[in-house]
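One chain given next:
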Amino acid sequence: MIHELTNPLTKTLVTHLRDQRRDAVRFRHTIAELTKQLVYEAFHDFPLLDRTVITWTGELSCKTIDEESIVVVTVLRAGMPMLDSVMELLPDAHAGFLAMKRDETTHESVLYYDRLPDCKGKTILLVDPMVATGGSMIDALELIKSRKPSRIITLNIIGSPEGLDVVKSAYPEIDIYIAQIDEKLNEDKYIIPGLGDAGDRSYNTVG
């Protein structure tokens, strides 16, 4: 199921991201803030465990997420600010990494690196700012599914209707949390109006 955030603050932050005058530091910071909003929405019904902590009045049984049952998987480079943001909220979660590149002739993604921890029985948070054609998301999900997780949730900033339809058709059981669904893909398969290249804008990389 696709869950698009409707909070006015979310839409305001997306507008900040679209502004090409926003420097890399502020761009990464805004991505991180939006990611936290996505996490809050995605975890609204997440199961809780009992945990005993030591408070100023003594022992107390409290509720907590089982962070060690969560694997946060990011797509390099653009997903790194999102990964860092999630790990600030869930410091005991595990992290995994995928690297893909875009074939400029076919407009398809090519997976060339993966480093994933044990995913069996875990909840996977797949974080990637952009869903354009959906190809890179499909490739990532195919690999992750082969590791037998119990659940997969994706966190995305911007997506095209076409790309999201592709992902939803292939994996209808996956929950997709996204800050903004944009208008369309152009003939070069870029999201319109989009953000530009999220990786380049995050790290001042051109070419």
About this structure: The chain has one domain: 2-203. Residues 126 and 154 are 5 Å apart (CA to CA). The mean pLDDT is 92.
